[in-house]
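Hi C.,

You asked whether I'd gotten around to modeling the 252-residue construct. I have! Everything is below, sequence then structure, no commentary in between.
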Amino acid sequence: MQSSIVIEAKFRGPPNSGNGGYISGAFADHLAAPKGGAGKAVQVTLRAPTPLDKEMQVIGVDAEHLEVKQGDLLIAQAERVELSVDVPKPPSFAAAAAAVKDSLALQPGLNSLVPGGLGFHPICFCCGADVDAKEGLRVFAAPVEGFDGVAAAWQADAGFADEDGFLPSAVIWAALDCPGQFAFMNDGIRTGLLGRMTAQIFQPVTASDQIVIIGWCMSIEGKKHFAGTAMFNQQGECCAVSKQVWIGRDES
C-alpha cells in the first residue's frame, strides 16, 4: 500500500525541515490499526531531514511497519512497538506556569540561524516563541523547583482542535517533542536533532484542557541522549508519553 504526505512549512522545527514530533506523529497516523494491537505505541526513526511543502511517499511494508521516502531517499521508518516508561509525578499547572519565565524558549540570542529570534528554536512549531499562538503550540518548558527535569504549562489554541474539540495525534506528538531536548539543556547539555521518537496516546486531549507537559533525562550512550516526556490533563491523568533519542555530541 502506498500513499503520499506533505508536511506544510508551518510545521517546521529548524527553518528548513519538519518538527520532529509533528512529523513523527503524522507518519505514525499512516500505520494501519493493528488487529488486536490496541494500546501499542509507535516508534518512528528519522533517517533524513523532512522536507517542507514537498510530496513524500508513505509505503506500507506490512500492517506493523512503514517507510516514508522522497524518491529514493529514505526519510523515516515507523513501526508498532511496546513501550514501557517510568513516568515521574508532574508539578502542578500553577508551578509550571510560574516557572515559564525561565524557559530557554524565551531567552534571546541562543539561535544563530534566526537572527534576532527569541529562544533556542524561535520558529519551531512546538517551542517557537516567535510563532503566533494560532500557528504554533508555544510549549515553553522550564525547570521547576522540586522536579528533576522541566515542565510546561500549556493550553492549545482552539484552532488546532477537531470539530469535537480534541487535538489531533500529530499535535500531541509535537507538544511532547521539545521538552525532551530542554531537559538536557537544563543540565547544560546541548543535543542535536531528534533521531527517534516512540509515543503512546492513552486518551484524547481537548484544546480546553490546562495541560502539564514534563521532560526528563534518562541516559546517555555515546552520541545518543535518551529522554522521556509525558502529558497530563487538568485531572492529573497521564494522556500520552514518549521516549526519545536525540543525537548529540559524544559525552563519554
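If it helps when you're writing up: The radius of gyration is 17 Å.

Thanks,
B.
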